[in-house]
Amino acid sequence: MSATEVTNSRISYESFAIKPPLHPTYDLKGIIKLALAEDAGDRGDITCMATIPFDMEVEAYFLAKEDGIVAGIALAEMIFNEVDPSLKVEWSKKDGDFVHKGLQFGKVYGRAHNIVVAERVVLNFMQRMSGIATLTKAMANAASPAYILETRKTAPCLRLLDKWAVLIGGGRNHRMGLFDMVMIKDNHISTAGGVTNALKAVDLYLEKNNLQLEVEVETRTLEEVEEVLHYASQTKTSVTRIMLDNMVVPLPNGDVDISMLKDAVRLVNGRFETEASGNVTIDTVHKIGQSGVTYISSGSLTHSVKALDISLKIDTELALKVGRRTGRA
User: Fold this and answer.
1) Which of 119, 218, 257, 307 would disulfide-bridge 243, Cβ 3.0–4.6 Å?
2) What angle do CA 225, 228, 231 make, to 5 degrees?
3) Active-site positions?
4) Among candidates 29, 50, 89, 161, which has minimal Cα distance to 312?
C-alpha cells in the first residue's frame, strides 16, 4: 500500500497540514500496527487491565517539556484511531508550529485504557519527529538562501516518517531510496573506472530502459567537477545535480574553510544544481549557505537526532507541578 493511499473514516491526507512524502510501497498504517504490536506482545497491557476499569473515560493532555517544533500530530491521530476510533483528539497547534516549554497543546478524550495503550507509541513517534523538525528548522533558517536536505541516514523502517519530519521542519527531501533518483557516488565511480565512464553508463542505461530520472554525481575534487562539466559539454546527458563532497574543510578553531566549495560553484556557474555535503553542522551551515550552492545535505538531521521532550498526562496539574520542580515544564 502506498503511503498516499492510507485513509479511513476520520483521517485523510488532504486534512494534514503537511503531507508525507510519496513512496510506492511504504505502508504507513502497517508501521503503526507493528509499533502497537511490539508494545502489546501476546498479552496486551497487563498493567492497564489490572489497574484501570475498561469503561472509565478521561481527558489526557499533551505537554511540551521543552521549546521546539512539534511534528507527528497527524500521525498521532492515526495511531489513536487505530487503537480506538471513538477517541476524540483536539489540538491547539498543528504540525510545524512552535511549542514552548510548559505548553498544553492538545488533548485526547475517551476510554482511559485505550489512551494509555496508545500513549507510548504516539509519544515515541512524536518525540522523534519533533526532534528532527526542530533541528531541521534551525538548519534551514541558517542555510538560507540554500535549501537544507536530509539523507538516507534514517532509522530503519522509519524513513518516510523521518523525511516527513524534515518537511514539517521546513527542509526539503533528498531521494527517498535507491529507486527514485540516480545518485553516482564514490564507490560507483571507482567501480566504473572513473567519473566519465560512470556518467556514460548511466546515460546509456536510462536511454535503453526509457527512464527519465534526476541524476546526481558526486565529485570530490575540482578536477572531478571539471570532468563532469567537460563530459556534459560534449554529449547530451541526464545529469541534473553535482554533489560537492567534503569541499568544506574544518579548521582547528572550529570554523570551516569554504574556498574550495566556492571555487567549485563558480566552475559550475549555474549549469547544474549543486549540493554541498560533509562537515555540515548547525554551527557551519550558515557559512556554507553563503557559498552559492543550491542545496546542503546533512545526515545529522536524522541519524543522531535528539528527541523533543513531550508527555501525555491525565492529571495535568500534577504533571506541571512535578515538571516545575524538576525544571522540565
Assistant:
1) 218
2) 150
3) 120, 153, 185, 218, 245
4) 89
Collect all residues with Cβ–Cβ distance below 8 Å to 265 and sequence separation of at least 6: 244, 274, 291, 292, 293
Give dist(CA 291, CA 94) in Å, integer: 34
Closest CA to 142 of 286, 26, 41, 271: 286
Phi (first) and psi of residue 201, to 5 degrees: -65, -40
Q: Using one digit for the tens of pLDDT, what is the confidence trace for 100-151? A: 999 999 999 999 999 999 999 999 999 999 999 999 999 999 999 999 999 9
CA 175, distance to chain mean position in Å, is: 12
Mean pLDDT over 234-258 rounds to 96
Q: Which residue in this structure is represented by grid cell 500521525? A: 75
